[in-house]
Amino acid sequence: MPDVSPEPRDPSTTIRGTVQTGARSGLRERLVQLSKNRLIRQNAILFTGGLIAGIGGFVFHAIAGRILGPAIYGQVAFLIAVYAVGTAPALILVVVLARYTATLAARGDTGVRTLLTRTVRLIAIPCLLAVLITALFARPVAAFEHLGSPIPVLILGFSIALVWQVPIPRGILQGLQRFTSLSMNLSLELVVRTLLVYTLLAAGYAVS
Questions:
Q1: pLDDT less than 50: residues of the chain
Q2: Exposed e or buried b for every residue in 94-131, given b needs 16+ CB within 10 A?
Q3: Minimal CA–CA distance to 170: which of 52, 46, 86, 72?
Q4: I need a labelling partner for 161 at 20 to 30 A (CA). Which of 23, 40, 51, 88 fits?
């Protein structure tokens, strides 16, 4: 009677296949664990919001440069540079409010709403001063930069005053670890700003 026993298999082949399956399973489990990690998930949400905001800024400059041309876009670049300098205090305010809100949340204090209203009232004072200073120096700045009209400088002053109020909810959201709402806030600002600027530029308003 002929021998019908199965041929012996190469042990190295079996071991290698088992190792590869185990590696894939381990990698899958590691990814699942990482997706459940709160810190990684929150950072991924913030990264997504920051990425959308960065893309919005790039599109904003591309549209403005294309429609305005080099000469007028140079004026816009000046206004954006001043705006960037004026928003520096807002970045500091975000960090301060986030830390203070996190401290209140850790203590179980319910004074976050009071913190919001008090900060809005406190920041309103330098906002009014910024508007007043802008109104006083709008014409000299416009003449120095050859803008042709003080209206862009006035709009810039009002924008800086308003942007000092923006970090108040952002700092509180960050302190409360509501990163989804914070990410939406970050991305929505650039999207709305880009659409608004594109609409105004397409309508022929340009800088003035």
A1: 1, 13-20, 208
A2: beebbebbbebeeeeeeeeeebbeebeeebeeebeebb
A3: 46
A4: 51
Please state, in angstroms and rounded to a whole number, the distance separating the CA atoms of residues 137 and 30.
59
Neighbours of 93 (CB within 10 A): 19
pLDDT digits (tens, 9 = 90+) for 142-155: 888 778 788 888 88
The torsion of the CA quartet 41, 45, 48, 50, rounded to 10 degrees, works out to -130
Written as six digits, the tokens of 150 are: 């003080």
Compute CA distances 98 → 47, 91, 133, 179, 187, whole Å: 18, 11, 29, 12, 19
pLDDT value at residue 107: 79
**Calpha distance 58→51 (Å, rounded):** 11
Long-range CB pairs of 105-113 (<8 Å, 24+ gap) are: 105/175, 105/176, 105/177, 112/172, 112/176
Instruction: Using alpha carbons, select from 200, 191, 190, 90 the residue that is nearest to residue 151.
Output: 200
Both tokens of residue 137?
A: 């120096």
Which residue do the tokens 């970050």 mark?
Answer: 186
Cα of 20 vs its chain's centroid, Å: 41
Asked if 190 and 60 touch (Cβ cutoff 8 Å), the reply is yes
> pTM for this one?
0.55
